[in-house]
Amino acid sequence: MSFDRSIKIAPSILSADFANFGAEIQAIEAQGCDWVHVDVMDGHFVPNLTFGPPAVKAFRPHVKTVMDVHLMISPVDAYIDAYADAGADIISAHLEASPHIHRTLQAIRGAGAKAGLALNPGTGIDDIDYLLDMVDLVCVMTVNPGFGGQKFIHSQIEKVRQLRAKIGDRPIHIEIDGGITTETAPLMAAAGADVLVAGSAVFTGGSVANPAPYGENIRAIRAAAQAATN
Ligand code: DX5
Ligand code: ZN
């Protein structure tokens, strides 16, 4: 995985057909996505339940791009090795979910994955100064985590702008997660985001039997974001 700041579209399979994950992953990759975003929820840190390590392991052989695993779980440290062993390329943990986030990020890199730091909409960026040398990605949540299909929170645009300035030349991706559409993607790309997670906006209108709309949606989001960075 080489580093660059080009716009990357990462569909969240939270919006996929839950009876068909392998085929859904193959379909979004064939339709041009850059990464595959896997939302792991525990019914405790967030009010929803999704994928344990065996599920993520079952997705792995279908992912030819990058498997980006977003852990919305607390405690988190005890599960890092299991998600790394399941084949996650990137593991993101929430600042709010770990009393020792420094240790958590060390553990993620120690397990051989790229380390992501996720921030809820209510969390500022003052507390990340001493973590920047330990992360490969910062994920700014643009909805409160737990569900797909929520409304984008506009206050996060300024947060991303400040985060982009703080990151400077460091090779750290800025990922945006929640409520991304052709309307909101350009706002975030202009503010400095390079990885755009989108669930409902990618999967809407398509299916495994009719995957062409996935490609149209991915291209439309990418074009809107790229137009804002030119
Ligand atoms: C929210 C998840 C997101 C979400 C994105 O907790 O982390 O990845 O599913 O879905 P949309 O794009 O529908 O907001
Ligand atoms: Zn996510």
Describe the structure.
This protein has 230 residues and is α/β, with parallel strands linked by helices. The chain has a single domain, classed as TIM Barrel. Helices cover 33% and strands 18% of the residues. α5 (156-167) runs parallel beside α6. The longest helix is centred in the C-terminal third of the chain and has 18 residues, at 212-229. The chain is globular, with a radius of gyration of 16 Å. D-xylitol-5-phosphate binds at residues 12, 14-15, 37, 39, 70, 143, 145-146, 148-150, 177-180, 197-201.
Summary?
Helix content is 33%, strand content 18%. With 230 residues, the chain is of the alpha/beta class.
Question: How many β-strand runs?
Answer: 8
Q: In the CATH hierarchy, what is the architecture at level 2?
A: Alpha-Beta Barrel
Please, what is the average pLDDT?
98
Distinct small molecules bound, one entry per kind: D-xylitol-5-phosphate, zinc ion
CATH class: Alpha Beta
The helix/strand series, from N terminus to C terminus, equals: EHEHEHEHEEHEHEHH
Low-confidence stretches: none
Evaluate the radius of gyration: 16 Å
Oligomer: single chain
Helix content: 25-40%
Strand order of the main beta sheet, please? 1-8-7-6-5-4-3-2
N- to C-terminal distance: 24 Å
Characterize the biggest β-sheet. 8 strands, parallel
**Count of alpha and pi helical runs:** 8
How many domains in all?
1
The computed structural class is alpha/beta
- Sheet-strand content, in percent, reads 15-25%
Under CATH, the homologous superfamily reads Aldolase class I
Q: Output the CATH topology.
A: TIM Barrel
The dominant shape is globular
